[in-house]
Amino acid sequence: MSFVNKSNTQTLAKYLSLDQGGKIQAEYVWIDGDSGLRGKTTTLDFKPTDVSELKEWNFDGSSTNQAPGHDSDVLLRPAAIFKDPFRGGDNIIVLAECYNNDGTPNRTNYRHSCAKIMQTHADAEPWFGIEQEYTLLDADGQVLGWPKGGFPGPQGPYYCSIGANVAFGRDIVEAHYRACLYAGVTISGVNAEVMPGQWEFQVGPCTGIDMGDHLWVARYLLQRVAEDFGVSVTFHPKPIKGDWNGAGCHTNYSTKAMREENGIKAIHEAIEKIGKRHAEHIAVYGEDNDQRLTGRHETGHISKFSSGVADRGASIRIPRHVAAEGRGYFEDRRPASNIDPYRVTEILVESSLG
Fold this sequence. Notes:
By secondary structure, the protein is α+β, with helices and mostly antiparallel strands. The chain folds into 2 domains: 19-107, Ubiquitin-like (UB roll) (Roll); 119-353, Creatine Kinase, Chain A, domain 2 (2-Layer Sandwich). The chain has 9 helices and 13 strands. The strands form 2 sheets. Strands 6, 7, 8, 9, 10, 11, 12 and 13 form an 8-stranded mixed beta sheet that branches. Strands 2-1-5-4-3 form a 5-stranded mixed beta sheet, covered by helices on one side. The radius of gyration is 21 Å and the shape is globular.
């Protein structure tokens, strides 16, 4: 189901084909005070090859819930560069960190502390893979593909579905997938989810801080693609109340020790440590996660920590093939779809290796 205004798309293409006169457009993207994304563009006279070549910029933090009006300037420090699939050419997307005027990290900047933890434990070689679930909404704010004023048939035929009667929004999903590949995001797959109108993309494997960088940019690309189609995206963990699956951000995690022979011992040791800090993990595993972690719809209950082999009702699942091979990784199924990946990856490393 597509909502593209073809006339506007063709008009825009005419202008995007114009020569840029040797200039580069750099879209600075940052996380705002409400866990959303913002962006603005600057012109460069050169093609940067490293973030160190990019300027520090700023924005009005009083308009993004990141600073008071009397001291509103928030600084943007470039952290990572990606190719821009919307403008093409040598144009770039710059993921930036937010800092206050005194040089301290803005309260929304969780990348700063995450980077320190990842650097401290770099020898452990932490790898991550995150499964980002999300729900598409039409122009009226209703789940894409759902009948107006009603509900679709029960869950069952929608997961990994094929066909116009069960798969809603595939054109957006395919466009996003290709945009991620072009941009340099380590996207590893996509699939339709259990609730109709809900989809998932996977990012990883990524090492250390790259996990948060790549997931945030993948989210930015998704929202920009959806914008082109006249559709919006919600990352709420329970967008529809009732007998419908919620949306999560299952986080797969391993260290060098877990991936080596007999690594299952390191896996169990890590799970035991993480379980002792269950409440601390839940505190950073997303807003409104209690609406999702009910013990139903393939979740463990928010108040109880559990683990098991191939158990999708557990807090942490050890895949069956990992148990059989005696090494590999585990999947933390608790994180909600609206997590800040920097906070989740940081506490996983801190809990398991600290």
